[in-house]
Amino acid sequence: MRRSVTQITAGFLICSSTAALAQTWKQTADGVIVSPANGSEKVVRLQVYGDGIIRVTSAPTANIPAAGSLMVVARPLSNGFTVSDAQGHVTLTTPKASADVDLATGNVSFRDASGKAVLVESGPPAFADTSAEGQPFLSVTQQFNRGTDEGFYGLGQHQNRQMNYNGEDVELAQHNMDVAIPFVVSTRNYGLLWDNNSITRFGNPKPYAFVGQELKVTGEGGQPGFTAHYFLGDREVVTRQEPAIDYQYIEDQSKWPAEAKAQTTAATSGQNTAGNAVGKQRVVWTGTIHPTASGTHKFRLYSSSYVKVFVDGKEVLQRWRQNWNPGTIITTCRLSRTSRPMSASSGNRMQATSRSFTATRCRMPTAIR
Predict the structure, then answer these.
(1) What is the per-residue pLDDT across 21-67, written as a single tens digit (0 to 9) for each?
(2) pLDDT band at residue 108 under the 50/70/90 scheme
(3) Structure pTM?
(4) Which residues lie closer than 8 Å to 350 by C-beta, 6 or more apart?
(5) Are residues 30 and 78 in contact, defined by beta-carbon separation less than 8 angstroms?
(6) Are 255 and 238 in contact (CB under 8 A)?
(7) Which has the closest alpha carbon to 228: 261, 263, 248, 256?
(8) What is the dihedral of CA 348, 352, 357, 362, to 10 degrees?
(9) pLDDT at position 12, please?
(10) In the predicted structure, residue 1 carries a pLDDT above the cut 50
């Protein structure tokens, strides 16, 4: 339920206590266990896995579930570390690193061999009950090194043109051309493994919402939503209002107006079940965004084929992707509380999900889906 930290050692579990506060700590064979006086964590366990490797596990209940890890195959060590306490903190020390637990809050901080802090919890984790396929689960959110200027690298293979993940948003989920590896390496010379098999969001944990949901959008004539202009070739054939831009999945193709679908001929090879388009079809969405706050807004686009995005008449994004390999890209722009016109154009032959364009999911100060 928490994470393993490389080049940082740790190990705790329950402890000896302070009378004024209900916190306790106890040294164990492989580390230490702490029961914090306050906060969301009822128990925090640190285990030593090497001179510079500490595994931290915590739970909102008094006992840590016995579920095994699919990532960690090593066994914790029973020597090579010391445990000490002073001024409301318990410190686990190894030759290359140390981990300090605040007995009042359960917050853990990690230091290198020189005593320099490299990784610090910015607050206690947030636990929330959730469910999937009718089964109960626990969701956890955790934040480290808030406001840091260090670089973060790793997280697997993604298609979003991001390199340094500091300040970026990444969803860790396995799908075509995306490989999620929940391990990040810092320019401060440490690594962190998030030992969790669930879909994880690195960065802002809040999901992007469609523009038109969190951000008010009005189209031509002040009507709610985007004004969509559908073309066959250069001829506009359909104009209508749409609450959001969303053609991400195969089932969404039923929303494309029949009058704006290019004729197709049967495919003679491959896996093309939609046929080959004879003509060109495209759509241009235009709308005015009404932000509730001024500042930098993030817009996330999921698309294939050829796409352009304009804000205030300025092109902020131009991209092309193969139809069989749609992907996500995030762009930012500064918006003020005054209205801002936006237009998005998705073009070429739109077939099935090939021309996916989930163009406006947003975050406040925000983003586009």
Answers:
(1) 456 999 999 999 999 999 999 999 999 999 999 999 999 998 888 77
(2) very high
(3) 0.76
(4) 247, 256, 262, 277, 281, 282, 283, 305
(5) yes
(6) no
(7) 256
(8) 180
(9) 30
(10) no
Structure tokens at 51: 């001179």
User: Which of the four pLDDT bands, split at 50, 70 and 90, describes residue 303?
Assistant: confident
Length of the chain: 369
The CA-to-CA distance between both ends of the chain, in Å, stands at 29
Whether 81 and 31 have beta carbons less than 8 Å apart is answered as yes
Task: Write the secondary structure of the chain as one string of H (helix), E (strand) and C (coil).
Answer: CCEEEECECCCCCCCCCCCCCCCEEEEECCEEEEECCCCCCCEEEEEEEECCEEEEEEECCCCCCCCCCCCCCCCCCCCCCEEEEECCEEEEECCCEEEEEECCCCCEEEEECCCCEEEEECCCCEEEEEEECCEEEEEEECCECCCCCCCEEEEEECCCCCCCCCCCCEEECCECCEEEEEEEEECCCCEEEECCCCCEEECCCCCCEECCCCCEEECHHHCECEEEEEEECCEEEEEEEECCCCCCCHHHHHHCCHHHCCCEECCCCCCCCCCEECCCEEEEEEEEEECCCCEEEEEEEEECEEEEEEECCEEEEEEEECCCCCEEEEEEEEECCCCEEEEEEEECCCCCCCCCEEEEEEECCCCCC
The token pair at 85 is: 């306490």
Name the residue among 227, 246, 249, 226 with its Cα closest to residue 238: 227
Structural domains in the chain?
1-205 (2.60.40.1760), 209-265+275-363 (2.60.120.380)
